[in-house]
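Troubleshooting: if your tokenizer reports a length mismatch, compare your output against this known-good record of 235 residues.
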Amino acid sequence: MLVIGGSSDIGMGTIRQIGMDYDKVIVHYNHMNDELRALEKELGAVCVQADFSDEAQTRKMVDTIRQMDLVPSHILHLPAPPCVNQKYHKIKWDVFRQEMNISLRSLVYISQEFLPLMAKQHYGRLVVMLSFVVNGMPPAYCSNYVVTKYALLGLVKALAAEYAGKGITVNGISPSWVMTKYISNQPEILIAQNAERSPIGRNLEVNDIVPAIKYLFSDGAMCINGQNISITCGR
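Known-good structure output:
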């Protein structure tokens, strides 16, 4: 299993819950933390650092994993820069570009390297973190985030179509707000408002997300392909 953005709360939660199901766990991270170090020791995971805003580091990470002579059968793609709310006319193009580089370019490089190898083995699972913003009308003041998630959704659809006959499934998951450090810079009032809008009266937790990843990784999901799985409790 290859987890891209493994130092995120969802990345670490996934590794903690299903990492033992795999012979080898490779974890990409940008910033190492104590919890990831502990998981590295517990599972014997191989951790590879790269800052995806830097193209050279992105390519080097892909090359490093390829040189391990391992073809990951399951890939979870999570990376995204911190979420910051801002009016559209104040967002500079560099902000759009950086978000695309971190979230989209990294997936392009990784999938171009490993999907053909998965195809030779006629087996593979790729799950991409999308967002509820691609389901219906998105929230205001995060246009760079919305644009990037739609681009990722487009890539999910395109890859699913191209590799459908090769034993590979490519799907996205779109949760509503999850209580992780990713939203830690959001105003408390917005976090509370999103919890109130949820049919279950709270924001999601990591443990609400991992079961969907586990299922999409399973053989039971072999006929689910090119889908965007909404995890919003019916919102």
